[in-house]
Specification:
The chain is α/β, with parallel strands linked by helices. It starts with 19 loop residues before the first helix and ends with a strand. Helix 1 runs parallel beside helix 2.
Length: about 1100
């Protein structure tokens, strides 16, 4: 009777409201077996659409609605050529300044069916051929005019509803299952049944909403149909039909659409006009109801079926599309890879023994069978463009990658599981991640695009959606709330509000204790919840690069990013699902830290380190630093949780056997076991490391969990456990791992659990043991790490630790200069003090742009001065390099010729204190003014007399220091409050362990925090503070957090009272009371 050929999903940016999964499920519930999703100017969700269609039994038609300033048309792909042409056309639409849709369709017409009510476009296209041209008739969109157009041009009409909303019969339905994309997809139901939106997604419409321009169908009904359209529908009008038929488009859906439009157009809801939005009638209706709209034009309905029969629906994107390396054929590429791997093995091992050869043969066989040779060669070529890289992720389990110097951890020595990366049962493409120094990444991309061309290469997108506070802020703006009110609310909820939380749940948070949210804010939060995740725009993925052997635009539309790079319309998951192979070229600041620190050491000390053969963990200073958890600045090991764990493992109470464990292996394990659901396993892990007796839950696990003391720590152990214990194949085990580590996995997880339990019991494993092991597997939910990834980063962290232990000044300078640590610059400067470094202020003759470390000093760089322009800093440094140091402030003014604002910031930051004296700062500012007035006097013959102001007092000097540098450099801020805190007789953080079990008072400066929930869902917080002696960790359990949470994010001098608790020889403070030293 009818098929929907024009529907918009939420991947029509700032237009659609429902995901492809929801549209497919709704179409199935209405009895449809075919659906076209035609998102605006894009194929943004094609892989998701195909996946959802498979889940719901829908035959998918791929298409788009191309919309320009002058023209509009729906384009449907009849075949693969049509798909490629749609992709090319969309690419031109986004990339060409003077894109013309009519001209583009003249070029890309083959394989495409065109639906439009655009007279000019259809007339032009018909002059060449009328094949595949149809006039679109849609309720609520001037159907009479469209029907007249069809008669005038003698083109067949086709019915669409421009579906955006859901047509809903009021009722209730059980929650649907989820797909792997995490969107709700109900199973197909009997034809004619209607889905009802859940109460949670259907906010009531307030009077304020109506006042902003949202009217009900009754209020706008007369505007939906002209008298002629009413005649066409054969009833008293669409609005009346909608009211009386028991079916109507969801008004909350339409409201969400209007919110999206208002945000996109940067206007208020009350200012939206009908031309700016869709109409309330644009909904996914049942076929029989669509028939009631077209009693005098039944051929429009039949033509929808005819068109659907012409369109390809058996789409298959499962083939992997590899880049081509230097135009080599498949066999030539494999032979090249094989030889390079052999040469690399000799370089790595000196000679190739039987074990290395067997592993190489195994890996190369799978690589050959899968056709991955080109991919490895391309990645190797890119990796060679930098001296320092860090191949990571599961690819670090590959010996071939190790021999090609893509990765740097020996997979044989460290027992890395290759099947986590590649196995015979894995159908999706491999994924090699390579880190480069962050400031070299752009050069690597430039090389890639120069080597392969923009016609073959493009970056993967991030599909940026509305999220959390940003969604709340944008909704509040279009509702018309004032900026100050929006700012106050968003700042209060920072760090704890999640978009899935209801307004009622949020109002129960301790931060809102004793207050109630207004009805406006409740409504705004309800709308923001629905907005969460809606596609807003594309951005560059942090590293994903796709290279194809021919033309990228025939596989996926390409846009141009803000950086000028070609950007495909899919994010990483859809890219992989479509068979496109992604190479992650990622920027890593720690690589730059190590590079810069090594360069400084070579320049200052004449010490050169061979990066390729460097074994940092053989160094005793490095070992000591790591075992004491002094890893601030050491990438991957510097978070409070990892530092605390390292201290527990090797505390002063640890038995001698703890120190016999391989340090590298323990670092890999410790950095991997930190994950949200693994706290109980962490405690057991430390106990076993320190000698607690233990045994495997089952003998079959000895080969899998032996190295991790019977505890599952790495992602790939999920796969290995399933293989050993339950008879899974490598491919099945890998699928289980993927399901575990993804969200919204309940249905598939239940199937895997049943298979796991059945397979285990067949092998004689008791059900209780199986359940215990399954619980360990579930602890990997959310984020977790594979051993190759952690091993790669542990190696990098070991190098950072070596530099910190042996060259602290150069290391801390490099950390701050590269602006890429877990903590703030203030925290790293404090760490420098604890390492015995003298912190030197910025100086006009001594400071470089970046921080510099030399011997036992750390000099603040000009980069730290807030308000100093980069151009001003560069001009100053250039003048100093070419003509020497400045002898006086007047000479500086004459030679540097900086803007007044730049020179003023330098004075206030203390850059001239060593040259002129701190007491002369006011005089220097007057001299600066006088210098500029003298320049003016040359033109106007004006003269001013220079005054002699008094020096600033100490408070003003400190205030200027904070104003220009962002924090105190000359002293620790707690030193300013010494008189106050001495009255409270606080204990030192460095002596915390001596007070175990006692009530104490401490002072601290806020460093970093982490808010979590206890097992009852109550918020609590972990905060790291520091005093002048050390960093200490404090815990605020729910009851204390509820009392003091509004005080816990301020950079002020804290006064803390609580109980000192000890675990594995490490002390923390359980806080009971919080105050401030400064009132």
């Amino acid at each position: 009777m009818f098929i929907h050929l024009h529907a918009h999903s939420s991947l029509s940016p700032n237009w659609g409201v429902h995901s492809p999964e929801t549209l497919c499920s709704h179409a199935a519930l209405l009895g449809f077996n075919t659906l076209a999703i035609t998102d605006r100017n894009g194929l943004y969700g094609v892989p998701r659409f195909l996946d959802a269609a498979r889940e719901t039994g829908i035959s998918p038609i791929i298409g788009t609605e191309a919309v320009t300033q002058n023209n509009r048309a729906v384009l449907l792909a009849c075949n693969e050529e049509g798909y490629a042409n749609i992709s090319r056309l969309i690419s031109d639409l986004h990339c060409q300044k003077n894109f013309d849709l009519t001209q583009a369709l003249s070029e890309y017409r083959r394989g495409i069916i065109v639906l439009s009510d655009d007279r000019k476009l259809l007339s032009a296209l018909k002059r060449k051929s009328e094949e595949g041209l149809f006039v679109e008739l849609s309720p609520g969109h001037a159907m009479h005019s469209a029907l007249t157009l069809a008669r005038d041009l003698r083109l067949p009409p086709v019915a669409t509803s421009r579906a955006l909303l859901r047509a809903t019969r009021y009722g209730r339905q059980a929650p649907p299952p989820a797909t792997r994309y995490g969107r709700q997809v109900p199973p197909p139901a009997t034809p004619g049944s209607f889905i009802a939106a859940s109460d949670a997604l259907t906010p009531t419409l307030s009077q304020r909403e109506r006042g902003n321009g949202l009217n009900t169908l009754e209020e706008r009904g007369n505007g939906l149909n002209t008298p002629v359209e009413s005649q066409l529908t054969g009833n008293d009008g669409l609005a009346e039909y909608l009211d009386n038929a028991g079916t109507s488009p969801q008004l909350d859906d339409f409201h969400l659409h209007r919110v999206l439009r208002a945000i996109h157009l940067n206007t208020k809801l009350s200012r939206l006009t009908p031309e700016m939005t869709a109409t309330e009638s644009d909904a996914l209706y049942p076929a029989q109801k669509m028939a009631e709209f077209f009693p005098h034009c039944p051929e429009a309905l039949q033509n929808s079926i005819r068109i659907a029969s012409l369109c390809k629906t058996d789409w298959d994107f499962s083939s992997t599309i590899f880049p081509a390396f230097r135009e080599l054929g498949t066999e030539a590429a494999f032979e090249t890879l094989q030889e390079r791997a052999r040469q690399g093995a000799i370089w790595r091992y000196g000679s190739i023994d039987d074990r290395v050869q067997a592993r190489l043969d195994k890996e190369l066989s799978i690589i050959r069978d899968k056709g991955f040779s080109h991919y490895f060669l391309v990645v190797e070529e890119l990796t060679k463009q930098s001296e320092r890289t860090c191949g990571r992720g599961s690819a670090a389990a590959s010996l071939v990658a190790y021999c090609l110097a893509i990765t740097h951890v020996d997979p044989i020595r460290h027992n890395l599981f290759f099947e986590r990366f590649l196995n015979e049962g894995r159908s999706d493409p491999p994924d090699i991640d390579v880190d480069f120094p962050w400031d070299e990444r752009d050069a690597i991309l430039d090389f890639a695009f120069a080597r392969y061309g923009a016609h073959r290469a493009a970056m993967v997108a991030n599909q940026v959606g509305f999220k959390g506070r940003s969604a709340l802020r944008e909704v509040a703006k279009v509702y018309g709330l004032p900026d100050y009110e929006i700012k106050e609310m968003t700042e209060r909820i920072s760090g704890f509000w999640r978009a899935e939380q209801s307004a009622a749940a949020m109002s129960g948070h301790p931060l809102f204790k004793g207050e109630s949210l207004s009805s406006d804010w409740q409504e705004i939060m309800s709308t923001a919840r629905r907005l969460n995740g809606q596609l807003r725009h594309l951005s560059l993925h942090c590293g994903g690069l796709v290279i194809v052997p021919d033309e990228i635009r025939k596989y996926v539309p390409v846009e141009i990013s803000h950086k000028g790079l070609p950007l495909i319309q899919w994010e990483k998951d859809q890219t992989e699902d479509a068979g496109l192979v992604k190479i992650d070229i990622l920027g890593n600041r720690s690589l730059a830290v190590i590079r810069d620190a090594m360069a400084a050491v070579k320049e200052q000390k004449g010490v050169e380190i061979d990066y390729a053969t460097w074994r940092p963990l053989d160094d005793e200073r490095t070992q000591s630093l790591l075992r004491r958890g002094l890893t601030i600045g050491c990438f991957y090991l510097e978070s409070p949780s990892v530092r605390l764990l390292l201290r527990k493992i090797w505390s002063s109470t640890a038995p001698p056997e703890t120190f016999r464990h391989d340090l590298f292996e323990v670092l890999v394990q410790a950095s991997s076991i930190i994950r949200p659901a693994a706290n109980s396993f962490i405690q057991e892990y430390v106990a076993r490391l320190q000698g607690k007796p233990w045994s495997h839950l089952h003998p079959l696990l000895e080969s899998v969990l032996g190295e991790t003391l019977g505890i599952a720590i790495y992602q790939e152990q999920i796969t290995q456990i399933a293989m050993e214990l339950a008879g899974f194949s490598a491919g099945e085990g890998d699928q289980l791992r993927k399901v575990i580590t993804k969200k919204h996995r309940e249905k598939r997880l239940a199937d895997f659990r049943a298979k796991f339990m059945a397979g285990g019991m067949e092998r004689g494993v008791p059900e209780k043991v199986l359940q215990g092991i399954w619980d360990q597997i579930l602890s990997f939910a959310g984020y977790s790490f594979c051993k190759p990834h952690s091993a790669s980063y542990a190696l990098l962290s070991g190098k950072a630790a070596y530099m910190k232990a042996n060259h602290p000044a150069q290391f801390i300078a490099a950390v701050i200069s590269n602006q890429g640590g877990y903590y703030s610059p203030f925290a790293y400067i404090s760490e420098g003090r604890r390492l015995g470094l003298a912190i030197l202020p910025p100086d006009i003759n001594e400071s470089e742009y970046h921080y510099t470390g030399k011997e036992q000093t750390l000099r603040v760089g000009l980069m730290q001065i807030d308000g100093l322009t980069r151009d001003g800093a560069d001009r100053l440094l250039k003048e100093r390099r070419e003509h020497g140091a400045f002898a006086s402030f007047k000479e500086f003014l004459r030679r540097a010729r900086l803007q007044r604002a730049d020179a003023e910031r330098l004075v206030k930051a203390g850059c001239f204190d060593a040259l002129e004296g701190e007491e002369k700062r006011p005089t220097l500012l007057w001299e600066l003014l006088h210098f500029q007035q003298q320049a003016t006097a040359l033109l106007f013959e004006q003269k001013t007399e220079l005054p002699h102001p008094p020096p600033y007092d100490a408070q003003m000097v400190l205030r200027q220091e904070v104003e220009t540098l962002g924090f105190l450099v000359s002293r620790h801020p707690l030193a300013l409050y010494k008189a106050q805190w001495q009255r409270h007789r606080p204990i030192k953080a460095s002596e915390l362990i001596r007070h175990t079990g006692k009530w104490v008072t401490m002072v601290g400066w806020w460093i970093t925090t982490k808010t979590v929930e206890d097992k009852h869902g109550r918020p609590m917080e972990f905060i790291s503070f520091e005093d002048v002696t050390a960093i200490f960790d404090a815990t605020f359990f729910p009851d204390v957090y509820a009392r003091f949470c509004r005080k816990l994010s301020q950079r002020r001098p804290y006064l803390l009272k609580g109980m000192v608790e000890e675990e594995f020889g490490v002390a923390t403070l359980r806080v009971k009371w919080v105050g401030f030293l400064d009132g």
